[in-house]
Structures are given as structure tokens and as C-alpha cells.
Design brief:
By secondary structure, the chain is of the alpha+beta class. It contains 6 helices and 13 strands. Strands 3-4-5-6-7 form a 5-stranded antiparallel beta sheet, covered by helices on one side. A 3-stranded antiparallel beta sheet has the order 8-9-10, with helices on one face. Strands 11-13-12 form a 3-stranded antiparallel beta sheet. A hairpin with a 4-residue loop joins strand 9 and strand 10. The longest helix has 29 residues.
Length: 249
């Protein structure tokens, strides 16, 4: 449709190409929109290449500042302007750009939808959820969230497709895609020691805060699962943790 950007679609039975994800019969695979992939695959390595080319010149310009830290090292970089040295900078910048693209693509949530199941690939793990076990799907900022029948989070992560493509695909397969979290009003900011939570949950949230502080998202995610087992849902807003009880708890 003119004026819209979506992911690629392919119908395996008819060989047709279109929009909104890659569709095979009644299976929709959601990935990066073509425009985003083009920007990532071409733009990021190109920026790295240009930065590598500019390193000696930028270093010479920056070395004139009297308050610059690591001034000796920056002045050394500014003297590396022989053609083969500049070539090394360019190659390093290009390789760094390619690595950034590979990291960005590998960390994105990958989705495969059918009318009966949703398959989620994330952080090197693959999980499958039955349609009947999904009570709500919504976007929390840039993160896609699937809730179970107990209102607990089944999965949370940043997907590659655009919001409109996600909503259209989930709704086409009969999933309850919502405009917002249907339980948002039940969340409370976590205050250590509040009597509203058991001591065990306080200990887990304190451990999760420490995990987030040391940049350990896998550990933080595992703690969310443990907290859910005790009857609570956890989410983040900025640097603060928020919690609510599971529906019926």
C-alpha cells in the first residue's frame, strides 16, 4: 500500500510477494522491513567506513584541546596518516559496522504466527505458545508483550517489524492484540520493605535490581520468571521496577 512500510510477505503456495511479513499458507513470519534491512546492511558499515577514514583528521583536530583526556594517545592517532594506516582504520570501521549489524539482527525477537501457535525466537532460545494460552498481546514502548491466561508475561522483547505490521499479523491470526496493557492500572512502584509484598519477593526484586545494574539481562529475566511463580508480574519504567499481582492472586 502506498505510503506504508512493512515487512516482506511470501505465499508459498502461490509464490506471491507482498507486505506485512513472510506468509506461508496460514503461517506468518515477521522480520525486518526491507527499508530497515537496507539501512542496517548498507548504512551502518558505510558510517563505520567513513569514521575510520576520518579518525586521523579528527584526532589531529581534537588534540588541540588543552583539557582533553588521553591527549598523548589521541595525538599518536593523529600522526597515523600514511595511506596504509588510514586503510587499516577504514577496514576496522567497516568491520565494526558489519558486526554491529549482525548483533542487532541476532538480538531481535523473531516471530512465526499460525492460527494455533506463536513461535518466538529470542536470545538464542526458541519458545512456542498455544493461541489458547495467550490472553493479550500489546506493545509496551518498543517491546512486544504476550500475556498468559493468568495475566503473567509469557514473553517480552523488541521485535524487528513495525507496530502496524505486528498488530495486523496478530489480529489476522485471531490473537487479542490490544492498544495498551489491559492491567496497567494495577502496577505499583517497588519500594523495598513495603508490607504489600512477601519478604521472598522483596529479596528477588533486590537481586533483580542488582542484575540490571551489572547489565545481566538474562539473569534479570530469570528472576522475573521466579517472581511470577510466586504470583506477581514485574516490569521496568526507566530505572524503577513496578509490580502487580497475577489476575486472581
Amino acid at each position: 500500500m502506498p505510503g506504508k512500510e512493512h515487512s516482506e510477505v511470501r505465499d508459498e503456495h502461490h509464490g506471491q510477494h507482498g507486505q506485512h511479513g513472510e506468509m506461508t499458507g496460514r503461517t506468518t513470519e515477521l522480520g525486518h522491513p526491507r527499508s530497515d534491512l537496507l539501512l542496517l546492511l548498507v548504512g551502518t558499515p558505510l558510517v563505520g567506513l567513513l569514521l575510520g577514514l576520518a579518525v586521523p583528521r579528527l584526532a589531529r583536530w581534537a588534540s588541540g584541546s588543552p583539557v582533553l583526556p588521553w591527549r598523548d594517545g589521541i595525538q599518536f592517532l593523529g600522526r597515523l596518516d600514511a595511506p596504509w594506516q588510514v586503510g587499516l582504520f577504514v577496514a576496522a570501521g567497516f568491520v565494526a559496522g558489519v558486526l554491529l549489524v549482525l548483533m542487532a539482527v541476532s538480538e531481535d525477537m523473531r516471530l512465526k504466527l499460525t492460527d494455533e501457535q506463536v513461535h518466538v525466537g529470542q536470545d538464542g532460545r526458541s519458545r512456542t505458545f498455544e493461541r489458547a494460552d495467550v490472553s493479550a498481546v500489546f506493545l509496551d514502548g518498543r517491546q512486544l508483550v504476550l500475556l498468559g491466561t493468568d495475566s503473567g508475561e509469557l514473553v517480552r522483547g523488541v521485535p524487528a517489524p513495525r507496530a502496524a505490521a505486528l498488530a495486523e499479523a496478530f489480529r489476522a491470526h485471531g490473537y487479542p492484540f490490544r492498544d495498551a496493557d489491559p492491567h496497567a492500572s494495577l502496577f505499583h512502584r517497588w519500594i523495598p520493605g513495603t508490607p504489600d509484598l512477601p519478604a521472598e519477593v522483596h529479596a528477588l526484586l533486590a537481586a533483580r535490581r542488582a542484575a540490571l545494574g551489572r547489565k545481566a539481562p538474562r539473569d534479570a529475566g530469570d528472576l522475573v520468571e521466579t517472581v511470577r511463580g510466586l504470583g506477581y508480574v514485574v516490569r521496568d519504567e526507566g530505572t524503577e521496577q513496578y509490580w502487580r499481582p497475577l489476575a486472581g492472586s
